[in-house]
User: Which sequence fits this backbone?
């Protein structure tokens, strides 16, 4: 029952993330930076209310200088990720955002090697190599490196590394991260309002409602993902994560009619090949890990352990 609930939560989270390209354009004519500021402010409001009704705020006492520093870095990285995504979606680059989240798992592996000095299995090396070739092919097709995809992938990959070291629950961590940026965001919105260039009070009640709900839209998938992460195997989460970029790719091509010439499709096909190699390797490694015999207790030899 717990695994079924976790699977439902995981699928729901990635479905919501996959639908993001349909949501952010609804907030126009607000500019991307105004949307980003509203997202920060209303996320903070929603998260504080959520924690007040559920877990409370005792976790704040566990924040030492090291954790606070890491949370500040995480706040900067997620701001870059959010801002880039909103700009890309609202400027007709939905397909390129999907590319960023397709290559994100491979970028995370590469960052693990560079930053954490981890070693790659042979098939992981092959997957990363194919992904590098794919980025070169797409750079030739676009006439430039796919900057939006690379910024999204690297920002989110680094964000994941930092979050891993922080060791806080998703909602708690996001609340702390948002606390670093909510004051500048609020000041910016107040300045827009006083200057008359903001859209919060000038585009009707529907626009206000959409901007306010950006907080819930941000936090709800995260809460669902957190519930899934503790109930289903990591391999399952790894497979589910491809749902969002697949949906974003289809929305970009089928809903927004973005160009997909054969040269660009070839680049995406290489990315999908790299992900297939990467996923098969991850599934096989997980099965081997489960099948491996448990090590004997530290205070017993194998022979003694068998007689107890």
Assistant:
């Amino acid at each position: 029952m717990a695994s079924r609930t976790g699977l439902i939560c995981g699928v729901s989270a990635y479905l919501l993330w996959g639908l993001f390209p349909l949501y952010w354009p609804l907030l126009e004519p607000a500019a991307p930076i105004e949307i980003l500021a509203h997202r920060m402010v209303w996320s903070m409001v929603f998260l504080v209310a959520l924690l007040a009704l559920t877990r409370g705020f005792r976790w704040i006492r566990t924040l030492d200088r090291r954790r606070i520093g890491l949370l500040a870095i995480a706040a900067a990285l997620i701001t870059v990720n959010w801002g880039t995504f909103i700009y890309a979606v609202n400027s007709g680059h939905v397909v390129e955002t999907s590319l960023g989240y397709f290559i994100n798992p491979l970028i995370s592996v590469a960052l693990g090697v560079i930053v954490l000095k981890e070693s790659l299995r042979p098939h992981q090396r092959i997957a990363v190599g194919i992904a590098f070739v794919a980025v070169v092919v797409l750079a030739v097709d676009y006439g430039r490196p796919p900057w939006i995809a690379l910024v999204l992938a690297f920002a989110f990959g680094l964000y994941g590394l930092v979050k891993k070291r922080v060791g806080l629950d998703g909602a708690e961590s996001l609340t702390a991260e948002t606390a670093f940026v909510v004051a500048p965001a609020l000041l910016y919105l107040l300045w827009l309002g006083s200057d008359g260039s903001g859209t919060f009070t000038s585009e009707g009640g529907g626009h206000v409602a959409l901007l306010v709900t950006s907080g819930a839209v941000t936090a709800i998938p995260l809460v669902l993902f957190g519930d899934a992460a503790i109930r289903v195997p990591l391999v399952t989460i790894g497979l589910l994560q491809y749902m969002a970029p697949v949906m974003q790719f289809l929305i970009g091509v089928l809903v927004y009619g973005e160009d997909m010439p054969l040269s660009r499709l070839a680049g995406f096909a290489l990315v999908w090949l790299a992900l297939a190699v990467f996923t098969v390797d991850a599934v096989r490694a997980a099965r081997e890990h489960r099948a491996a015999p448990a090590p004997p207790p530290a205070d017993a030899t194998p022979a003694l352990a068998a007689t107890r």
About this structure: The radius of gyration is 21 Å.
